[in-house]
Amino acid sequence: MSQTDSKPAATPRWGMIIDLNACTGCSACAVACRAENNIAIAGAKEAAYNGTLQWMRIERTWTGSGRNFRVENRPVNCQQCDAAPCEPVCPVLATYTNAEGISVQVYNRCVGTRYCGLNCPYQGRFFNWFDYAWPSPMEVQLNPDVSRRTRGIMEKCSFCIQRILAAERQAELEKRALRERDIQPACAQSCPAEALRFGDLNNPGGAVGAAWDSSGLEVLLPEVGTRPKVRYARRVTPPDSRLAAAPTPTAEVEA
Amino acid sequence: MSTVTVAVNEPPQAAAQTLMRPMLFTGKAYRRMSLLLLAVIGWGLFCFLYQAIVGLGVTGLRRPVFWGFFVTDFVFWIGISHAGTLISAILRLTNATWRYAVTRAAEAITVFALMIGGIFPIIHLGRPWLFFWLAPYPNERLIWPNFRSPLEWDFFAISTYITASSIYLFLPLLPDLALARDRTRGWRQRLYRFLAMSWRGTQQQWHRLELAIQLMAAVVIGIAVSVHTIVSWDFAMAVVPSWHSTIFGPYFVAGAIFSGIAALIIIMAILRRVYHLEAYLQPKHFSNLGKLLLTMTLLWGYFVVAEMITTWYGNLPDEMGTFWSKISGHFAPLFWAMVLCNFVIPFPLLAIKRLRTISGTVIASITITLGMWLERFLIVVPGAANQRLSFNSWFGYYPHWTEISLSLATLAAMALLYMIFSKIFPIISIWELGGGKHAAAAESGGQS
User: Fold this and answer.
1) Which residues of B touch A133 (CB under 8 A)?
2) B430 has which bridge partners?
3) pLDDT of amino acid B133
4) What is the pLDDT of residues A61-85, one digit of tens each?
5) Cβ contact (<8 Å) for B150 and A59?
6) Given the DSSP bridges, would you call strands A230-233 and A14-19 parallel, antiparallel or unpaired?
7) Angle formed by the axes of helices B69-93 and B248-274, to 10°?
């Protein structure tokens, strides 16, 4: 029995580790997420006006200059906080943390006050400003397991809850325990660098559960006290003696 | 309240005639104005339907500026509503006799401003047709609203306030309604007879009325303070850096009274001119309200300095983005316009006795109303635009035509409601002005 095959505890608690050392910023996760979750494409005009919906996005930051120039690509989705600031502010209880630790959005209940969107320090929530169209033939790629959202409601990353539910149903049908390896959100599945790992935090033998408390992990905006269930493996840049010795950057490139 | 202060040289009989004239005769200008306002309101209704059918994308709002003009208007109108009741209640409890001419006008502002302010949270919803989900009504799915949400607190705060201020408007109306009942005939008489609730002006009725008014005055002050505090908590309870501030409760209440007095002065000046009430709304009233306004100007200035200087000195990176965007960045023109409108222009106009005339106080009130709207905007939008993760900052918010139209349409609705009110009810309290209960009781054929 390999590590990933070990049996999760009775009620799973889903979490994700994103390895910033492995991420190349290719955006495959963002594309896969869009396809899996029927996320609308708002169009170029809307994109220029901040009107896009992206449950998973790459935040790219540049630091330093010259030899110390660094690019960091940080995939950011809903951080699935244990103490989610977005939840208590909803006047109609359209968002809550479910038994498996996922902060879910109840589309049917949402009336669109957008308070949750403001109170998310990660800006991980997106509003349907319009009824978006899927011009033919794009409608054939819609995922039948995910509802299309109408105008006027909020949406966000659900850790691909439809996949989790499907795996749980399958396990029930086959009268066996849920296998962690059966569940992969679209972003983690599509990452060529395997920078995104998804798993059960209640399973100390699992891929994510085992690494969850290691010191190399950080959370985004720890000062807000949201206790996210997405953690980042901190970017580590080893000292490069070759670079230090090189007289100029050009010489280094030639070498 | 037995002090008889007749503000005019007319006998009560004549005063009643002058003050009831707008209720009995309607001029051409009134009809034209009503039609114009109705047209603006109709355009607003069209915009609202258009926005509901196409989606909120027709506004300029986008992530992360999820709140803009509509929330600004909401806070602004709830602020204006403090004109009324709070000022009238304070003047009543302190027994300021010059209040007689202004209380009714102020109390009416409160009720209508609350109606206008109260519809903005609905206009602003993504799915406005489901607004009733915020109400705790019995339903088959046994779902309650979320009592932990500040928006839910708003729902209760505003519904409490509108109930209390309606009662507070209605109680002092009773003797005047009886007066109107006795001086009209036809459908008007039937209407006033119904509204006057068998008021005959007996000693016992006067006693109960005075007790009820005093009680409501005390109650309504507490409610008014709590309402704007709760409105401020929509922001203060959030984790958005520049919103999360303990000062917001008192800051918003002070701002609300500030803009409320300004709105009252503007409306009094209009009433005075349109209904020829020069004898009743005298320079003295404007000067006295001007003094109150001066106090609030200073208080407002104090709050702004207290809020800004602590942010600046603390120099917390999360809050400095918003701070600099107001002081010297994207929102600087609006910020300095606000300082100009709320302090630099009104302060000398109100502080120098020679300038505290009717036109002086009206100019100050107009700039203050504009300035207070800007203040609400500058609390809502720069904070929302400046998020903790710097890559989410976005200053691209500009209001689109639906937002501007709806803001103007609600202003028109306020004006129209007020005009209709002034046609049906005496806009100045006749019985109070005409020498308190005894004169008025004699007027209405009472037994005192």
Assistant:
1) none
2) none
3) 94
4) 888 888 888 888 999 999 999 999 9
5) no
6) parallel
7) 80
Angle of helix B203-236 versus helix B436-443 axis, rounded to 10: 120
Which of B62, B127, B388 lies nearest to residue A112, judging by beta carbons?
A: B127
Nearest one of B181, B245, B177 to B425, comparing CA atoms: B177
Distance, CA of A49 to CA of B394 (rounded, Å)? 9
Backbone dihedral region for residue B186 (phi beyond 0: left; psi -120 to 50: alpha; all else: beta):
left
Query: Average pLDDT in the B34-59 region?
Result: 96
- Residue numbers in A near B130 (CB within 8 A): 111
**Per-residue confidence at A252, pLDDT binned at 50, 70, 90?**
very low
CA nearest to B146 within chain A: A91
Cα B417 off chain centre by:
13
pLDDT-derived band at A247 (thresholds 50, 70, 90) equals low
DSSP-derived letter for residue A14 is: E
d(CA B398, CA A98): 37
The whole-angstrom distance between A240's CA and the closest CA on chain B is 30
**Could you give the ipTM of this predicted complex?**
0.89
DSSP B172: G
Q: Which CATH architecture has domain A3-254?
A: 2-Layer Sandwich (3.30)
pLDDT interval class at B2 (50, 70, 90): very low
Q: Which of A165, A180, A149 is nearest to A8 (CA)?
A: A180
Residue A214, token pair as written in the block? 């290691």
Peptide bond into B283 cis (omega under 30): no
Domains, chain B, ranges and CATH?
Answer: 12-443 (1.20.1630.10)
